[in-house]
Amino acid sequence: MSGKEITIQANDGGSFMGYLALPEGGSGPGVVVIQEIFGVNKVMREITDGIAAAGYVALCPDLFWRQEPGIQLTDQTEAEWARAFELFNGFDLDKGVDDLEATIRALRATDGCTGKVGSVGFCLGGRLAFLTATRTSADAAVSYYGVMLTDHTGEDLKAPCMLHIATEDEFVPKEQQAAVHVALDGNPNAVLHDYQGQNHAFARVGGKHYDKASADLARRRTLEFFKRHLG
Prior knowledge:
The chain is an alpha/beta fold and 231 residues long. It contains six helices and eight strands, in the order E-E-E-H-E-H-H-E-H-E-E-H-E-H. It has helices at 42-53, 78-89, 93-108, 124-135, 174-184, 212-230; strands at 4-9, 15-21, 28-34, 57-61, 113-122, 140-144, 161-166, 190-195. The protein has an eight-stranded mixed sheet with strand order 1-2-4-3-5-6-7-8, with helices on both faces. The protein is globular, with a radius of gyration of 16 Å.
């Protein structure tokens, strides 16, 4: 399965690329796939293809377009990591959320999308996925090892949200993990899963901390969650 690049209109003018992948049957609920700090690279495109293969119309938007449109980095060199953190530090969170709302609307209007749209994000995208559940019209959200979530756990979860938490996450200290649990355990819209002994990006194929068993479990939980909330 291979997707194609489409153009998404931003709410404040301009446009940006999104990588769109369709399910074999050509139609299904929508899922916005939210990038890590490396852009819409090979890893994110393959994740998007994988979501489509599970029966969803999947769309991965280029959220770094305001800084460097079309950038694709890997996690394999120090120079690329340095550039990725530059992009992360220069990222306008509010505009990013606005671009995700534009993406959700574009996906709902895409031929084949049956109407409901969820989101799934990784790292920076995990943070943004949580924010799609508090600030956008998304119908459900899944956050993989989202960073800086303690900045947002006071916001009202308007949509069901699943969090995949790596207990040894080098970018999310244990006190932050504990604070997220305190804030969200018991919230009827929140489902939290801890992955004991796993580090950040345990689901990134080819990454230093990739763990197939944990990645497969998280994917199974994610797809069950989407089936329940998106149809």
